[in-house]
Write a structure and sequence with these properties.
OB fold (Dihydrolipoamide Acetyltransferase, E2P), Phenylalanyl-tRNA Synthetase, Chain B, domain 3, 6 domains, seven-stranded mixed beta sheet, five-stranded antiparallel beta sheet, 22 helices, 41 strands, elongated
Length: 836
C-alpha cells in the first residue's frame, strides 16, 4: 500500500517536519513492514510559462517543429526561446516549462542546447515527461487541468509534484489497511496523533433513497453458505461532464499511490477506493437496461470485461447483471458494455460488500487480479458502502459538475451484528509474557475501536466492523501486544518439554544423510514428478508396465506421474550438471516414492470442508485413499572418483564405489546387508546387484545400461543404487559399540579358494568369518580370477585375513590354524578348495 503523505495528513496529525522515514518507523512499530519511499523524480526550476509566439518550421526530415517564445516571469529570465515538437497548444496557453538545471524522471537533465538551428533555452513539458501519467497526447496545458496560475509560479508545488509516498506491506489478514482511512488510524495508534475518520458521516447524508432503481441479489449457490453479496448500494448522479479535467492534486495522489489517471469519473472511483478501502464502480446509467441483479453465472455465459477480453464464466462466478445479461464480474472488473466514457452524462454508482472467497476464486480463475479484488478478498468494512457511494457522488458533483439525484437509487443491506469475544483477564499477560495491567489491556482494545465490557473475571470484547480479522482471544491478545509496543515482549527461548525432539526414524535419516555427505556425496532433492515410461523402467526389475499415480493438475504436462523410483530425478540432476561442465558427480537423495497397488482406486475419500478439523475416522479414510509412500535413499556416481592432478592420473568411479555407498548407508542405519548378483531392466547385465537385508530384497546397485544413460543425456559409465530406507531403519539393531584397540601385533594371512562361478563371493566370505572364529579381526576380498589354471565353470577368490588376540601376540601357527578352520567350513558349504 502506497501512502502519499499529503493525503495522510488529511486524516491524522503528522508533524510538519516528519520525514518519510519517520512515518515508516511509526508504521513499523504497529506491525507493518517497510517497503520503499516513492517520489516524483522532478527537481530544479519548473515554472508556469505563457506562450507568446509559435512559429512552425518545416524540417528536411519531414518533421515540423515550433520555435516558441515563452514568458516564464521576470524572476526566471523573462521571455525564453524554446523548440517544441508538439502541436496541441497555441499562443496564450499557460504551460509547464522546465528551465535549464531542472531534472526530469529518467533522470533527464534539462540544459540550454542547440537544436534545429536554435538554442532551446528550456523545455515545454508533457504530463508523461513530468511523471504524471502515460498520456502521449502532447504538451500539458494548465487550462486542461482547470488551473489558472500566475506566470513564473512554481509548477512543482502547483501540480503536487513535491509530494512523497511511503510504501508498506499489508498482510492478508489486515485488509483494512489497504486504505488511507486504515493507515491513518494505525499511524494515530503509533504516534498518538488525532485521527479524523473519513468513514464517519451523518446517516442523513448517506441514507439511500428508498426506490427508483431496482436492485436484487439472487444467489442460489452460495459458497460455504455465504451469500455472494450482503450489501449493495446504488446512487445516481446526473448531468456530469466527463470531459472535465481531473484536478492535479488528485492526479498526483493517484500516481504516487500507484494508479494512473484515466478520466475524472474513473479517477474519482479509484480515489474513494484508496481513501475508504471500499472498491466503487461507476456505470453509464444510459447504457443499463432495467435494474441490477447480483447472481451466479449460468452455463455458457460470457462477459467482455473492461480490458476488452471476452471471458467464459464459471457457475461460481458472481455477476452484476441487468436485463441484457452480465455487465460486470462482481468485485473483480466491470464490463465493457456499460463502462463510463467521455460521453457519459448520467452515472450509477455501485458500492457493495462481496463474499471474499467468491471474489478470490474468480480473480484467480480468470487470472484477473485487480485493486478491487485485492480488497474484497481480504474483507472490507461492511458499514462503509453507504459512505463510499455518497463520497463518490459528492466528488462527481464537485469535480464533474453533476447533480445528485436524491430520489433515485437502490440498496440492499443485511443487518450487521458481531458476537462479543470472551477475554479472560489473566489470558493476555500469560500468553504474551508481559505483566499488562487491566487498564493497559482495555485501553489498547478501545484504541483499535473495540467495545469492552467488564464482566467480572473476564471482558466481553466486540471488535469494530472494519476488523474482521479479530475472531478470538488470541487475536485480541496480539492487538494488545501490538498497541502497547512489541518492544515490551521479552525475547525468551522456550524450554522444550522432556522426551521431545527427533524420533528414532528421523535420527536415522539424518545419520544416513550425514554419512553420505561426509563421504563426499552431494544431496540433490528433486521434484517427485516423472513419466510413465521412466516409472516402468526404474520402478521394477523387469521394466513391465506398473500402476502409477497420475496428477490431475501436474506442474509439467510431460511428467504427470508421481515417481516410483528416485533414479529418474538423480539422472535429471546429473544431466543438468553435465550440461554446465560438472563431469565428476557423486549425488544422493532421500525422498518418498509412491507405490500404488494394482486394481486399487485411490483418492476417493471425501475431503472435509475448509476450516474444519477432520475427526479420526475422516483422517483414517484419507490415509486409506493414499498409496504406500516409503522413503528411499538413492545414489548416482559418474566421472572420476579422483581427479587428475600432478603425479596422479584420474581414477574413474567403478561399481565398487557404488557398492561402498550401499555399505555406508547400511552402516549409518545400523543394519547389515548382503549383495548378490541379479538382473534388472535398467542395469548392465553382470554389473547389477540386489541388496538383501535378512534375505529380503530392499534395493539394488549397479551400472546403468549405456542405452539408458544415453537416453538421459549422460556420457560415460553411470552407477546408481537405491535402497528402502524405511526397511533399513526398522531393521536396525542396537547401536554399534566401537571395539577396544589392542596393543598386540596382528597376524596377517591370505587364502585363495576355488569355488564354482555361481557361488557368491559374499557367501564364501561369510563362511570364512564363521569358520575362523573370534581371532579373526578383518577380512576382505582382494581378487576374483577366472582364467588359465582354473577349471571351467570355476573362479578363484583371494581374501586378505587379519588375526589378533586381545591378551597376547598370536603365533603364525595359531593364525594358520584359524584360517584352515575357515577353509574347512567353506569346503563343507560350497566345495571350496585351496588354489594350487
Amino acid at each position: 500500500m502506497r501512502v502519499p503523505l499529503s493525503w495522510l495528513r488529511d486524516y491524522v496529525d503528522v508533524a510538519p517536519d516528519a520525514t518519510p522515514e519517520d512515518v515508516l518507523a511509526a508504521l513499523v512499530s504497529v506491525g507493518f513492514e517497510e517497503e520503499d519511499v516513492h517520489r516524483f523524480e522532478v527537481s530544479g526550476p519548473v515554472v508556469v510559462g505563457q506562450v507568446l509566439e509559435v512559429n512552425p518550421e518545416p524540417q528536411t526530415n519531414g518533421k515540423t517543429i515550433n520555435w516558441c517564445q515563452v514568458d516564464v516571469g521576470e524572476a526566471n529570465g523573462g521571455v525564453r526561446g524554446i523548440v517544441c515538437g508538439a502541436h496541441n497548444f497555441g499562443v496564450g496557453d499557460k504551460v509547464v516549462v522546465t528551465l535549464p538545471g531542472a531534472v526530469l524522471p529518467g533522470p533527464f537533465p534539462i540544459a540550454a542546447r542547440k537544436t534545429y538551428g536554435h538554442v532551446s533555452d528550456g523545455m515545454i513539458a508533457s504530463a508523461r515527461e513530468l511523471g504524471l501519467g502515460d498520456e502521449h497526447s502532447g504538451i500539458l496545458r494548465l487550462a486542461d487541468l482547470g488551473i489558472d496560475a500566475p506566470v513564473g509560479a512554481d509548477a512543482i508545488a502547483l501540480l503536487g509534484l513535491d509530494d512523497v509516498a511511503v510504501e508498506i506491506n499489508v498482510t492478508p489478514d489486515r485488509g483494512y489497511a489497504l486504505s488511507m482511512r486504515g493507515v491513518a488510524r494505525e499511524y494515530a495508534h503509533a504516534t498518538g496523533g488525532v485521527f479524523r475518520d473519513p468513514g464517519v458521516r451523518d446517516w442523513a447524508q448517506v441514507q439511500q433513497p428508498e426506490g427508483g432503481f431496482p436492485v436484487a441479489v439472487d444467489d442460489a449457490a452460495p459458497i460455504r453458505g455465504n451469500a455472494g453479496a450482503t450489501e449493495f448500494v446504488a446512487r445516481v448522479v446526473r448531468g456530469v461532464d466527463a470531459t472535465r479535467p481531473t484536478p492535479p492534486w488528485m492526479i498526483a495522489r493517484l500516481v504516487l499511490a500507484g494508479i494512473r489517471s484515466i478520466s475524472v469519473l474513473v479517477d474519482i472511483t479509484n480515489y474513494v477506493m484508496l481513501e475508504l478501502g471500499n472498491p466503487v464502480h461507476g456505470y453509464d446509467l444510459d447504457k443499463l437496461t432495467g435494474g441490477i441483479t447480483v447472481r451466479r453465472a449460468q452455463p455458457g455465459e460470457k462477459l467482455t470485461t473492461l480490458d476488452d477480453q471476452e471471458r467464459a464464466l464459471h457457475p461460481e462466478d458472481l455477476l452484476i447483471t441487468d436485463e441484457s445479461g452480465p455487465i460486470g464480474l462482481a468485485g473483480v472488473m466491470g464490463g465493457a458494455t456499460t463502462e463510463m466514457s467521455l460521453d457519459t452524462t448520467n452515472v450509477l454508482i455501485e458500492a457493495a460488500t462481496f463474499d471474499p472467497v467468491t471474489i478470490a476464486r474468480s480473480a484467480r480463475r480468470h487470472k484477473l487480479p485487480s485493486e478491487a479484488s485485492r480488497r474484497f478478498e481480504r474483507g472490507v468494512d461492511p458499514l462503509i458502502p453507504f459512505v463510499a457511494a455518497r463520497r463518490v457522488a459528492d466528488l462527481m458533483v464537485e469535480l464533474a459538475g453533476g447533480t445528485l439525484d436524491e430520489t433515485t437509487g437502490g440498496a440492499l443491506f443485511a443487518a450487521y451484528e458481531r458476537e462479543a469475544i470472551a477475554l479472560p483477564k489473566p489470558f493476555v499477560p500469560a500468553l504474551i509474557g508481559v505483566d499488562y495491567t487491566d487498564a493497559e489491556i482495555t485501553e489498547a482494545l478501545q484504541t483499535i475501536g473495540c467495545d469492552v465490557y467488564d464482566n467480572g473475571d473476564h471482558w466481553l470484547v466486540t471488535p469494530p466492523s472494519w476488523r474482521g480479522d479479530l475472531t478470538d482471544r488470541w487475536t485480541l491478545a496480539e492487538e494488545v501486544a501490538r498497541i502497547q509496543g512489541l518492544d515490551r515482549v521479552p525475547s525468551v527461548l522456550p524450554t522444550p518439554p522432556a522426551g521431545r525432539g527427533l524420533t528414532a526414524t528421523q535420527q536415522g535419516r539424518r545419520r544416513v544423510a550425514n554419512a553420505l555427505a561426509a563421504a563426499g556425496y552431494v544431496e540433490t532433492p528433486s521434484f517427485p514428478f516423472t513419466t510413465a515410461a521412466l516409472n516402468d523402467l526404474h520402478g521394477s526389475a523387469s521394466g513391465d508396465r506398473l500402476p502409477g499415480m497420475k496428477l490431475a493438475n501436474p506442474l509439467d504436462g510431460n511428467a504427470p506421474y508421481l515417481r516410483r523410483s528416485l533414479v529418474p530425478g538423480l539422472t535429471q540432476v546429473a544431466h543438468r550438471n553435465l550440461a554446465r561442465g560438472f563431469t565428476d558427480l557423486a549425488l544422493f537423495e532421500l525422498g518418498a516414492v509412491f507405490l500404488p497397488e494394482p486394481g486399487v482406486s485411490y483418492g476417493t475419500a471425501e475431503v472435509p470442508p475448509p476450516a474444519q478439523r477432520p475427526d479420526a475416522d475422516a483422517l483414517a479414510a484419507l490415509d486409506a485413499a493414499l498409496p504406500a509412500q516409503p522413503r528411499r535413499v538413492g545414489v548416482l556416481l559418474a566421472g572420476n572418483a579422483i581427479a587428475r592432478q600432478p603425479g596422479q592420473p584420474a581414477v574413474p568411479v567403478t561399481l565398487s564405489d557404488a557398492i561402498d555407498a550401499v555399505h555406508i548407508v547400511a552402516a549409518a542405519a545400523g543394519a547389515k546387508v548382503e549383495i548378490a548378483q541379479t538382473r534388472r531392466a535398467a542395469l548392465h547385465p553382470g554389473r547389477a546387484g540386489v541388496v538383501l537385508l535378512g534375505g529380503a530384497e530392499i534395493g539394488y546397485v549397479g551400472e546403468l545400461l549405456p542405452a539408458v544413460a544415453a537416453d538421459a543425456d549422460l556420457v560415460g559409465r553411470v552407477y546408481v543404487a537405491e535402497l528402502d530406507l524405511d526397511a533399513l531403519l526398522s531393521a536396525a539393531g542396537a547401536p554399534a559399540v566401537a571395539a577396544s584397540l589392542s596393543a598386540h601385533t596382528p597376524a596377517t594371512q591370505d587364502v585363495s579358494l576355488v569355488v564354482p562361478h555361481d557361488v557368491p563371493a559374499a557367501a564364501v566370505r561369510d563362511a570364512l568369518i564363521d569358520g575362523c572364529g573370534g581371532l579373526l579381526e578383518s577380512l576382505h576380498l582382494v581378487d576374483d580370477y577366472r582364467g588359465q589354471g582354473i577349471p571351467d565353470g570355476h573362479k578363484s577368490l583371494t581374501f586378505a585375513l587379519r588375526f589378533r588376540a586381545a591378551d597376547r601376540t598370536l603365533t603364525a601357527a595359531e593364525a594358520t590354524e584359524a584360517k584352515l578352520q575357515g577353509v574347512e567350513l567353506a569346503a563343507e558349504r560350497f566345495g571350496a578348495r585351496l588354489r594350487d
